[in-house]
What we know:
Layout (H helix, E strand, L loop, with lengths): L18 H20 L9 H31 L5 H23 L6 H31 L1
Helix pairs in contact: 1-2, 1-4, 2-3, 3-4
The protein binds fe (ii) ion (FE2) (2 copies).
Amino acid sequence: xxxxxxxxxxxxxxxxxxxxxxxxxxxxxxxxxxxxxxxxxxxxxxxxxxxxxxxxxxxxxxxxxxxxxxxxxxxxxxxxxxxxxxxxxxxxxxxxxxxxxxxxxxxxxxxxxxxxxxxxxxxxxxxxxxxxxxxxxxxxxxxx
Length: 144
Ligand SMILES: [Fe+2]
Ligand SMILES: [Fe+2]
């Protein structure tokens, strides 16, 4: 028996009101599903082969996050957004955390895939709600 739960993905609540950024956020949550598809059971510790598969997915998620952060920071620069430095700091911390997790998996640290999936999901959710949405509102006020 496999346990494939339907895990929370993108919701309307995450919309920041800038089309390109909303599409990227949505894509990130879709890519997140690859973690669940790479292993038969999210809740048991990864085997070596599963860890390799997850490392590949993490690389893809990291690349996509980098593309997204560059795009988003570009919108912030466009309006001289005062929250840009804080955003850059948080974005960089996320990338550092992902690289650290990739390293842990390469070194044979045993963890279930759900730990990684939840970290990424919760980081994106909290980041969008607390930092990206306020930026979206500011951007629309200036550009809208
Ligand atoms: Fe952001
Ligand atoms: Fe974002």
